[in-house]
Design goal:
The protein has 300 residues and is of the alpha/beta class. It is built from twelve helices and eight strands. Helix 1 runs parallel beside helix 2, helix 9 (226-243) runs antiparallel to helix 10 and helix 11 runs antiparallel to helix 12. The longest helix is centred in the last third of the chain and has 18 residues, at 226-243.
């Protein structure tokens, strides 16, 4: 990580913007020299940077600690492997303030380990989007109204904790905007969870977190509507694909848990998907048809 962290911090410091902003750097128990880099920058820019040193708690633990230090009206997350463009703050915050938005999401590029652009994902300008239909499923590349995260914590100790935002943040947002400006460059990391989770039982975290978040929605009185239902169907397929290399008995047990979860939170007499692409998947879950479910997961 240390080979990328300095470029990440430089990109955050070198912002061409009229707005004041603060950088919260979390040293999450690093052992590769990252701590020294973060500490040096915090000393060099003491009015712009808050430096926090802690034992390793993972992405969620770092984000949760940072939330305790947020003082601005808007907040954004940046992963240390990635970099932002010089207009990152300006593009997001200007629109957020002018439109009084709850979430503003920009366009992004995927880069490789040598900073070469692999892919560009460009939004259209839209000042009234449906989060479940338009937003990317990453916590980064967005400006969130800070109050959306009041009393919210990312699940610690689990993989795929990013799912939290879809169930806890998106339903609370009244005004969501997408912009075409490329403001973020996401580094495709061959050592990341996506590439290293295959065949590992811990990949079941993906299913566990989905269930936990649905339970949280009930506790927090967040409505389970059609959009969240469609998203959950897609998410269950994603959960299954993440564990597809596990033992067949584990997969069948996971499928049973998935069907029970769908029936519990989204009873068939109330919910029916409006998404044509999800209808066969929905049918396989309602009919408890494991073989068809596997096929439809792969087809999505």
């Amino acid at each position: 990580m240390s080979q990328y962290v300095e470029n990440c911090i430089k990109s955050l410091i070198d912002q061409d913007t009229e707005y004041k902003y603060q950088i919260i750097l979390i040293n999450d128990g690093s052992t590769d020299g990252t701590r020294d880099i973060l500490l040096d920058y915090s000393k060099k820019y003491p009015t712009n940077i808050i430096f926090i040193d802690q034992e390793n708690k993972g992405f969620s633990g770092a984000r949760n600690v940072a939330l305790n230090y947020v003082g601005g009206r808007y907040i954004t997350f940046v992963d240390t492997d990635d970099v932002v463009t010089s207009k990152f703050v300006q593009s997001l915050v200007k629109v957020a303030y002018e439109q009084d938005a709850d979430i503003v999401e920009g366009s992004y590029q995927v880069i490789d380990v040598d900073d070469n652009v692999i892919q560009s994902n460009i939004h259209s300008l839209n000042t009234n989007v449906n989060a479940f239909k338009a937003l990317y499923g990453y916590p980064w590349g967005k400006a969130y109204r800070s109050s959306l995260l009041n009393d919210i914590q990312f699940p610690e100790g689990f993989w795929y904790e990013d799912t939290m935002q879809m169930y806890r943040l998106w339903p609370k947002a009244n005004k969501i905007i997408t912009i075409p400006e490329i403001i973020y460059r996401y580094r495709k990391n061959p050592q990341g969870i996506t590439n290293n989770s295959k065949g590992k039982v811990k990949a079941l975290d993906s299913l566990y977190i989905t269930i936990r978040l649905l339970e949280d929605c009930n506790v927090e009185h967040i409505a389970l509507d059609g959009d969240l239902y469609n998203f959950t169907l897609s998410q269950m397929a994603m959960n299954f694909l993440r564990i597809q290399d596990l033992d067949e008995n584990i997969l069948k047990n996971a499928f049973n848990v998935i069907t029970q979860t769908i029936d519990k939170f989204f009873p068939a007499d109330v919910f029916k998907t409006s998404d044509v692409q999800l209808r066969k998947l929905e049918e396989s879950l309602r009919n408890k048809d494991y073989k068809k479910f596997v096929v439809y997961c792969i087809m999505l």
